Amino acid sequence: MTLKIKSFDELTKEELYALLKLRVSVFVVEQQCPYQELDGRDQKALHVWLEDETGIQACLRVMDRGVESEHVSIGRVLSLRRHQGLGSRVMAEGLRAARERFGADRVYLEAQVYAKPFYERLGFRAVSEEFMEDGIPHVRMLL
Q: What is the residue-level pLDDT of the chain in tens, covering all 143 positions?
C-alpha cells in the first residue's frame, strides 16, 4: 500500500478524477445521498490517500483553519476495504499531515453518527448534539 499526500495543485488529472469518482461512488451512490459533493473546498485541501495496484483504497482531505472550521479539519474520510485497518491508517496519516503541514493542535471533523465510535477510538470527542446534514445524522467532533 502506497501513501500519497498532495495539495490540489500537485494532483494529476487522473488522481483528481479517481479521488472524486471514489467519493461520489461512496457518499452519493452507495449511501443514496444526493448532495453537492464538489463543494469548492478541494482546491484548499491537502489530499491524503492509500493506494495499491488496483487503485485508491482509502482517502481523506485535510483543510487548514478557516476553510471549514476555526480549527484544522479533516473530511471526506472513506475506506473501500472496511474493517481491515485502512481507515485508521489513513486517519493517522491525515492527523500527522494536519500537525506537520498546518501546525494543528486541534482537529475538527463532522462525523456520520454511525462512525462516531471509530473516531472516538482515535481520540475525538463529540462537541455537538446530533444534527442532520443532507439527510444523514452527523455529529461535530474535536481531537
A: 999 999 999 999 999 999 999 998 888 777 777 777 889 999 999 999 999 999 999 999 999 999 999 999 999 999 987 778 999 999 999 999 999 999 999 999 999 999 999 999 999 999 999 999 888 999 999 99
* Phi, psi (rounded to 5 degrees) for 84: -125, 10
Amino acid at 100: E
- Give the whole-angstrom CA distance, residue 85 versus residue 105: 24
| Residue 27 neighbours by CB distance under 10 Å | 17
Distance of alpha carbon 101 from alpha carbon 103, whole angstroms: 6
First-last CA distance in the chain: 26
Topology of the domain covering 2-104: Aminopeptidase (3.40.630)
Domain ranges of the chain: 2-104
Q: CA separation (Å) from 72 to 50, 57, 62, 125, 135?
A: 21, 24, 7, 15, 25
Q: Using CA atoms, how far apart are residues 71 and 77, in angstroms rounded to an integer?
A: 17
